[in-house]
Design a protein that fits this description.
Blueprint (H helix, E strand, L loop, with lengths): L4 H9 L4 E7 L4 E6 H18 L7 E5 L4 H12 L3 E4 L6 H11 L3 E4 L4 H4 L11 E4 L9 E2 H5 L16 E6 L9 E5 H14 L7 E4 L6 H7 L8 E5 L5 H10 L4 E3 L6
Parallel strand pairs: 1-11, 3-4, 3-5, 5-6, 6-7, 10-11, 10-12
Antiparallel strand pairs: 1-2, 8-9
Length: about 260
């Protein structure tokens, strides 16, 4: 089963239930999506990738973004097409990005212009990347503004059926002991991780889950994925971590499950 099908199922059965809440205290901003809105946005991305960019089942698409609703929308949009997502560590430097590209030969890349210092020096060497989607402000003229994707009119269901062993994601280690090492997650392995973790810490349907770690990190995704089959509400921060505010949020929202960074006091 394509793991993105959980979004389809939840959108059908719980269309008006809020599933994602992004807080950005630095901008005094709070954004939410219901399951139906989330699935519609995923479909916009998936349809745009396949119909306008020619992304096909089995293609690799690199992903270099900070935490945001758009991170999750593009993640699920990519895997919904049957393509393989390659979420990159935003602490990677140019040689790391090039190394990852040499391993997977990506067809497209979705990136955040706030990470321009990492990406721009090596863009000319990313030979297989044909199209760039820029999620944020200050979009270069030769790239696609994510606003164009978000305004795409085609929201018909775009899910591609895949078998359990179909590759879902190629994730890279941080490279602290040499070059970053690639690890493959299949739709089957991610589904099992979600169900296993959900059973291990007794996830319930109406729980609140809060994470403070970067989304590209395997730990964040491993602990966060049970929220999808269990129809949880997920909360996260779109800006830098404020320890005091984080503890208050955990208490105020009656959070049962959270992913925290080790130095959080």
């Amino acid at each position: 089963m394509n793991y993105a099908r959980y979004a389809v199922i939840n959108a059908r059965h719980l269309p008006n239930k809020v599933c994602l809440i992004e807080r950005t205290p630095s901008k005094n901003q709070r954004r939410t999506l219901t399951w139906k809105q989330f699935n519609d946005e995923i479909n916009r991305v998936a349809n745009y990738l396949t119909k306008d960019l020619g992304v096909k089942n089995g293609d690799f698409v690199m992903h270099l973004q900070n935490n945001s609703l758009e991170w999750l929308i593009t993640y699920y949009g990519i895997i919904k097409t049957g393509a393989v997502i390659v979420p990159l560590n935003f602490r990677f430097v140019g040689p790391d990005i090039l190394y990852a590209a040499d391993v997977c030969n990506p067809k497209s890349l979705s990136w955040d212009p706030s990470l321009c210092r990492l990406f721009s020096p090596v863009q000319k060497d990313l030979k297989t990347v044909k199209k760039y989607i820029c999620v944020g402000d200050s979009v270069p003229k030769d790239m696609i503004d994510y606003k164009t994707v978000a305004a795409y009119q085609v929201t018909q269901e775009a899910i591609v059926d895949v078998d359990d062993q179909h590759d879902l994601a190629m994730m890279f280690t941080s490279g602290t002991t040499g070059k970053p090492k690639a690890v493959i997650h299949t739709h089957y392995s991610l589904n099992n991780t979600a169900i296993g973790n959900g059973m291990s810490y007794f996830v319930e349907k109406n729980d609140n889950y809060v994470f403070f770690l970067p989304l590209y990190h395997s730990g964040t995704m491993s602990f966060g994925h049970p929220s999808t089959p269990q129809e949880q509400r997920v909360r996260f921060s779109g800006s830098s971590l404020n320890p005091s505010g984080s503890w208050k949020r955990l208490h105020r929202k009656r959070v049962r499950t959270s992913s925290l960074s080790c130095p959080l006091p």
